[in-house]
Please model this.
Amino acid sequence: MAREPHISVEDLTFTIDRGDIFIILGGSGCGKSTLLRHLVGLQTPAKGRVFYEGVDFWSAPAPEQERIQRGFGILYQSGALWSSMTLSENVALPLEQYTRLRPKEIREVVSLKLALVGLAGFDDYYPSEISGGMKKRAGLARAMALDPAILFFDEPSAGLDPISARLLDDLILEIRESLGATIVIVTHELASIFAIGNNSVFLDPETKTMLATGDPKELRDRCPEIKVRSFLTRGEARAEADTAATAGSGA
Amino acid sequence: MARTPPPSTGPNAGVTLSSPSADHLLVRIAGDVRLADGLPEIPGLPEALAPGSEVRRVSFDATDLGEWDSALITLLLRVLSLSAACGAEADRSGLPEGVRRLLALATAVAERQGARRSAKRTPFFVRVGEGTIRAGRSLMEGLAFIGEVGAGFGRLLRGKAKMRRADFVQTLRESGFDALPIVSLICCLVGLILAFIGAVQLMMFGAQIYVASLVGIAMVRVMGAVMAGIIMAGRTATSFAAQLGTMQINEEIDALKTLGISPMEYLVLPRMLALFIMMPLLCLYADLMGILGGFIVGVGMLGLGPLEYFHQTKDSVGLASLWIGLFHGAVFGVLIALAGCMRGMQCKRSASAVGDATRGAAVTAIVSIIVATAIITILCSVVGI
Model:
């Protein structure tokens, strides 16, 4: 699977392999969420192409685009649950639309999905009646409804306490392991990035392009770009470099 | 993941049961089990694991399993819950690693006690009672809102209110200048319609000239104000409600409150004041447009002279009618702003609540306009003007 988009941030070329946990990294305002919108088909790139298994998404005919999109599961930043529907109705909607399951079977599958994210028994709650972390998990249950080949997460751990964030990371890993899904995450939680990511792209708001791509742990230790190392070490790499420079000039 | 060709005899061939011994049930899964193909039935499963059955051990054979997804997990959960119900021990070792992990995950977090809701029916009298209490409470909320607005207005007169001027100017423009095209169109057509209906009757007596009086008095005294009011209820009250409701959802209103700024003064007062000033002006404009509509029919179709029509209108429409019309307008302005702002501020925190608030604003505004018109009309006839 290869993607090659050129977007508002320019000149991005990177590849996501099947089964990757791919992290879109970068400081605020560098176009991470915009990149995600391009990848999932919500926004047309000004120039360039996005390939899914060799198919150019944006020049594919509409039915083909829909087929590709059906293989996506997307967890939006604040859950984006439909507020007029209960959790079970939220998760059931994609199943009703795209499978031939009977209503009773849909209920079973919905219960399974809610149980997987730890929300067993909350089927009949409305999104306004549950907490932010639960909304996020319910959003994940909906994203997983059709067992998508690719799961996209927009800031999954934003607004979660450290333990919930950790549990969500474990859940993401588990989904990847057991269902073999490919996972794309926009985040700047360093703990998550190193715990689960095995591939990444780093976007820079100043030069408006990507500075690096690869395993985030490798980037932290060996990336030639000081900006990337500094980001991945919460600024320590830059401080060290500055100290080294001062020492050098003093000598 | 081992891949085998899908079973040739349909999805039901995927899962079969066998009994190696009397107390052992073997569940054999073969081929693809995917949501896209639907959940296969497991023939004989409910009977084999009925309560009181002799089965003590359930094991799985998935050596011929093809592609699988949640469909398989759903099926297995069915088997597991049935075997747990009849006291049989489930041996998951025959299942692939990924399946075992998902099963573990699905059963890891026990259902929270008391989370599940049972659908309960509320008796008729309870519902009536609750409805009455709700109605009473919403009446009190409405009165409290009016009271708060009144208090805010008092502070404004004493120069102590923190009102947002930009909102005031913007509402002036939105509810004044921006509304002119739609008010022109609708009021001109209403004038036209009134003239047509009047003309049919008056022509029988050769009294076409009184079309001018009919249209003039009707428009200036009530119709201009009512039409402008209904337009503004649909246009402005709803936009107030949607805007304030969305601010409520985004916690913008809370942010104002915690800064010690009263949202009543900061958000509601400027809208109220702007509509109170603009509505009478809009009514005046609506009156003129209505008269223009009548003029088009009178001069164009009934053969009246333009000057003749003008003089007849001037003579028949008294100054009292004009004042009554303007009074209507000012009252409607307050009612529309109150309805829009109140529904917006009472909005709860979801997308459907904004819809409810918007609809509530339009309904409240229109109903209160019509009720106020009836009251003013009755009062005028009692006083004799």
Summary: The radius of gyration of chain A is 20 Å. The longest strand of chain A covers residues 21-26.
